[in-house]
Amino acid sequence: MDFLSSLTNCKGLEWLYFGYNPLISGELPGLVENLSSSLQMFLASDCNIGGRIPSEIGNLTSLISIDVASNKLTGSIPPSIGGLEELQSLSLSYNKLEGSIPSELCNLNNLAYLNLTSNKLSGPIPSCFGNLTSLRNLFLGSNMFSSTIPSTLTGLNGLLILNLSSNSLSGALPIDIGKWKVLTSMDLSNNQFSGTIPNGVVDLEDLVTFSLSNNRIEGERSLKSWVKGSISSPLNQVVDSNLLSTIERERERSAANKCALSILQAGLECTAELPAERPDMKEVVAKLKKIKVELLRSND
């Protein structure tokens, strides 16, 4: 890591990237604080960096992104990182970091991406994470976090991806989970959650992947099985109500219901576990065309 000392003379340096380099080894020195005050990117993933993250990194106040994932870093997350007010992305995943998440990280008001996956971090998830309103991607999987999901996290209504898998989280899921309106992926598998799946899951209209496997949830189901079980429910609980609300005539509404149900069934057939059980795409296209013809015919 000796080359870093020479870079302290580069006063206009804005982007430092030396990741994926097997020739680099050693520890990050405290002299990183002497790097350019204009430094915005510090990207050093997948090297052989060991030791602790120097607290002096908190003096690089122009940093927008820090990525030191897939190294051999030990010790705790330095609270000084919480002073990097411009920081938008922080990736410390796949290291050997220990201890709890410092509450100072809750000061990162511009943080959109936080990845602490696969470390040895423990303790509760800070409730003040609910203040990180810019957060879009939160990865805390494969650690030793305990306690419950802070109810304040449901205030992150701009969250797109949430992964809390493979921890020791317990208790019930937040009942107002539906506030994550734009969530596309949620993995809560391999924890100790109990209770039932909150009704608010139905409101997660953009959810693509959803896993609660290996918990103690009553009626634990995948998103696929949930949709399959919901087909027998009133269709407005499964399909976006805006698709049906503009149809005034009862006959046309009934036809639209039948059409939506047929499309859902076709989609479920395409998600069979074994490839041999899934229909050929030519069959699917033919089936969808047939559904369309039947819909148009019924509205004549």
Automatic annotation (TrEMBL):
<dbReference type="Pfam" id="PF13855">
    <property type="entry name" value="LRR_8"/>
</dbReference>
<dbReference type="InterPro" id="IPR032675">
    <property type="entry name" value="LRR_dom_sf"/>
</dbReference>
<keyword id="KW-1133">Transmembrane helix</keyword>
<dbReference type="InterPro" id="IPR001611">
    <property type="entry name" value="Leu-rich_rpt"/>
</dbReference>
<keyword id="KW-0812">Transmembrane</keyword>
<protein>
    <submittedName>
        <fullName>Uncharacterized protein</fullName>
    </submittedName>
</protein>
<dbReference type="InterPro" id="IPR051809">
    <property type="entry name" value="Plant_receptor-like_S/T_kinase"/>
</dbReference>
<keyword id="KW-0472">Membrane</keyword>
<dbReference type="Pfam" id="PF00560">
    <property type="entry name" value="LRR_1"/>
</dbReference>
<keyword id="KW-0433">Leucine-rich repeat</keyword>
<keyword id="KW-0677">Repeat</keyword>
